[in-house]
């Protein structure tokens, strides 16, 4: 099973009014505040012409069944 790359964690200090606006926007998009901030940053960088690789999303659901004969 592959492990997705770790995300960089860092403290971010923002104005309470800005946080509240991000929180409302996240709720309307059905995202967490963290995911909304990441989305907004990606959009802002794209508008500036900064190219980023697509985010790596973890696979969801059950792992595939092992095929007989694949056991080592």
From TrEMBL:
Superkingdom of the source species: Bacteria
Gene3D superfamilies assigned to the protein according to its UniProt record, in alphabetical order: Met repressor-like
InterPro entries associated with the record: Arc_rbn_hlx_hlx, Ribbon_hlx_hlx
GO BP annotation list: regulation of DNA-templated transcription
Identification of the protein by name: Toxin-antitoxin system HicB family antitoxin
């Amino acid at each position: 099973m592959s492990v997705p790359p770790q995300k960089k964690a860092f403290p971010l200090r923002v104005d309470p009014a800005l946080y509240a606006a991000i929180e409302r926007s996240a709720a309307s998009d059905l995202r967490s505040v963290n995911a909304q901030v990441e989305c907004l940053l990606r959009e802002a960088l794209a508008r500036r012409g900064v190219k980023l690789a697509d985010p790596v999303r973890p696979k969801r659901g059950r792992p595939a069944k092992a095929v007989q004969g694949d056991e080592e």
